[in-house]
Amino acid sequence: MMRMTVKGIGVVGGFGCGVAELSAALESGTTNVETLSVPTAAGKVEIPAYRARTGRLEEFVPKRALRRIDHYSKLGLLGAYLALEDGGMLGSDPGRLGVVIASGYGATATTFAFLDSIIADGDICASPTHFANSVHNSAAANISIMLGAKGPSLTVSQFEMSLPSALLTARLWLSEGRVDAVLVGAIDELSDLVGYLWHRQRGVGNAQAISPLDFDRESSILGEGAAFLLLTRDGEGYCGIDDVETGSLGAGTIPVASDSLLLLGADGRKEFGARYRELAGSSPRVACYSPLYGSMPAAAGFDLASAALSLKNGRGVPMAGDGIAGTSAVDRISAIRVAGADEYSAITLSL
Amino acid sequence: MTHPWPVAITGLGCICAAGTDVDSCVETLYTGRRAPAPPVRFGSDHPTRYPVFEVAGFTEAPELLRTSALGLHAAREALLDAGFDRDQLSSLKVGVCIGTTVGSAMNSEAFCRDYRSGNDPDLEPIERILRSNPASVIAREFGCTGPCQTVVNACASGTDAVGIAASWIRGGVCDVVIAGGADELGRITYNGFISLMITDDSPCKPFDRERKGLNLGEGGAILILESEEVRERRGKSPRSYLLGYGSACDAYHLTAPRPDGAGLRSAIAEALSCCGIAADSIAFVNAHGTGTPDNDRVESRVLADIFPGTPFLSTKGYTGHTLGAAGAIEAVFTVACLERGMLPGNAGFATPDPELGGTPVPVPTRVAGTIAMSESLAFGGNNSVIILGKREAA
Predict the structure, then answer these.
(1) What is the CA radius of gyration of chain B?
(2) E strands, chain B, where?
C-alpha cells in the first residue's frame, strides 16, 4: 500500500487552535473543560464539554464572507486553512488538491434550525438557507469555494469510523494520481441535539477529566472541533501514514505491529472499555490523548494529528491522569479505534 | 491517471417508483409509464400539493430507516443476480460503499418537535438513525468485513459511491464491493426543496422548454463490483464493466451549478481520460436532467460541446429525483440500456428549448455502441461521472 506523507496539520478544538496549541496541550497533558448549556424538560442543564472557537478564521477569510456560514463549516474552514498554512501550501494553486471531509453527525445545529423553521412557522416557512447548509457536504463545499479547490470533493459519514474510511479514499486518490495533495478533515460540532442526547444517555457526566484508561468507569466528556491533515504522496512532513485498515472485526483480531506505540481512541465511554482494555494489554506502550479534546467521532482526526506530532518530536508525550505514556523514543504508532458492535480501524504512522 | 483497467459489474438491484426490481423498472421505462402524485406517506400544509415519485407498497421494518431498507432490498437483488450468498461472501474481503443524503442525517422531525415542546422525547427515532447508517446496515446483513463507507455528496452520492468502489477493487482493498445509493422521501427534503423554489408543481419535464423544476423521488440501487480474479474463479459473466470515473468541484455556489459547467467538463474529461476513451466512442449519455432551469441549461450545453450529436436522456421523469440514490439508479438503467441497445424516451419532454444545447431522445430509440456515460451534479458543486461499457468494450 502506498505511504502518504502528513505534510501539514490544522486543528481547532477544546485545547485551542493550531499545531502550537495542540503541542502545548500534549506537553502539559491538560485542557480546560468548559460547559454546554443543554435545554431539557427540567430546564437548562450544564454539562461538561470541550468547546472550539473559530475566531482565528478571520486571519484567512474576511468577516463579511463568513456571514452566512455556520459554526460547523467554520470549524472545517479553519482546520483547512491551518493545515495548508502549516504545510506551506497556503496560496498555492489548488487545482490538484482534493478535499475529503469526515463527519460523524454533520451540521446538527443547522439541521435542527431547519426543523425549527418548520415547527415554529409551518412548512411554507421552511428556511432555504438552513436547508442548504444542513446538507452533509456543506463544509466541503464551503472549503472548496473559499479555496477555489476544483479537484474531487468527498464527504463521508460513517459515524465513529468516518475518518478512517475517508483516509482510505484519500490514499487511493493519491495513488491513482487523481490529485497531488488531499485535505482530509474530521469535523463534529456541539449542538442542542448532541448535548441533549449525551445528557439523556450519560447524565450530567464527569466535570473533571476523562480517564480513558480507567476502563470500567464512565468518564467521557463531549468535544467538538476539526482536525485536518494535508496529505501528499511524498516529500517532507511530520511522518508517513503507512497503512489504513478499517472494517468489521468478525472473528478476527485487530492487526497491530508489535513494535508500535499503541494510541487508543478510548475516550471514557464505558461501553468500549472492555475492548480497549484487551487492546491495551497487548502492548507495553500505550497512549491516549482524548482528555485533550474530548469524545466525538472527529476525535479520530485529533488522534492522528497528535500521533504525527509525537513522531516528529521523536517521543510519545507524557499523559496526565492515567500516566500511561511513553516518553521514550517512538518511531511507529498504531492508532486504534473501536466502535459499534465490532467495527474497528487501525492506522499505522511512522517516521 | 493510473487506473485504466475495467472493473466487472456482476450484479444489479434496483427499487424506485418505476418498479421493485431491475426488470420491472426497465420495463416501465420502455413503456413510458409514470405516475407522480402528491405524497401519500406524509402530509404537508403547503397549499400546493407538489407531486413526488413514491415507492408504492414498500414497507420498511420499524427498526430501520426507510432509506436503509430500500438499500437492503436492492442489495439482496443485486447479490442474487451476482450469484453470491452470505457463505460465499464470508470467504472474501467484501466492502460496502453507499451514497445517501438523508440516510445518516440526524433529522428526526418527531424528536425535534417533542423536544422543542419542552418534553423529554423518546430517543427511539434518533437511535433508529444511529443504527441505520446505510452502508453499515448492508455490511451487517451480509457479514461483510471489508471497508464500509457512506458517501454523503448530496445528489452525486450514488455515482461517487460506485466510482469509489471501483477504486477499492483496483487498489486491491476489496475482492467485491456492494456499491450504490439509497434515499427515502420525507417531509425534510420535501419542504427543503420547495423552499429553494426548484420544485415543479406538475410532473417534471427534464430538458423541456416549459420545465419548472424537479419532482422528488425515492429508491435504492446496488451494483456488485468484483475483481477479475474472483470473477474468473467463479466463472461468472459480467453484466457490464465500470471503465472510468471522474469527479470535480465547481467551487462556485452551495446550491447552483457553475454557469459555464467547468466542473462538469473537468469530471467528464477525467472519466474519459482515465480509461483512454474518446468522446465520440460514447453511445449515449444518461444525464442528471433534474428538470430545473439551471441544471438542464448548464448540463445540455456541456453535453453539446463535448458530445455533439450523441443521444442523451434523463430518466428522472420516471423516478423523480432520488437524491443520493439517483446516480446508482441511473447507473443500473445505463447498464440495462446498453444490454438492450435501446433508450427509453425522455419522459416529460415535449418542446425543445432554444436556450439548451440540444434535445433529449423523445421516444424509445435504438442505439448502437458499447460504451455509455452517466453523470450527476449536486449541491456543493459536486460533479461526478462514470463510464460504463459492455464486455466487448472492456
Answers:
(1) 20
(2) 7-16, 52-53, 94-99, 148-151, 176-183, 216-217, 219-226, 240-249, 284-286, 312-313, 342-343, 365-366, 371-377, 382-389
Q: Write out pLDDT tens, residues B265-280.
A: 999 999 999 999 999 9
| Set of cell numbers at residue B357 | 444545447
The answer to whether the CB atoms of B116 and A169 lie below 8 A apart is no
CB-CB neighbors (< 8 A) of B194 in chain A: 123, 126
**Are the beta carbons of A123 and B2 separated by less than 8 Å?**
no
Whether this model's ipTM surpasses 0.85 comes out as yes
**CA separation for the pair A222, A33 (Å, rounded):** 10
Of the candidates A116, A137, A193, the beta carbon closest to that of B154 is on A137
Q: Parallel, antiparallel, or unpaired for β A343-350 and A239-248?
A: antiparallel
CB contact under 8 A, A131 and B145: no
pTM over 0.90, yes/no = yes
Residues of A in contact with B143 (CB under 8 A): 250
Note every long-range contact of A38-42, with CB atoms under 8 Å and residues 24 or more positions apart, other chains counting: A38/A192, A38/A195, A38/A196, A38/A198, A38/A199, A39/A192, A39/A196, A39/B115, A40/A196, A40/A199, A40/B120, A41/B118, A41/B119, A41/B120
Least CB–CB distance from A157: residue in B1, B104, B112: B104
Strand partners of residue B94: B176
What is the chain B residue with the closest CA to A104? B104
Amino acid at A230: L
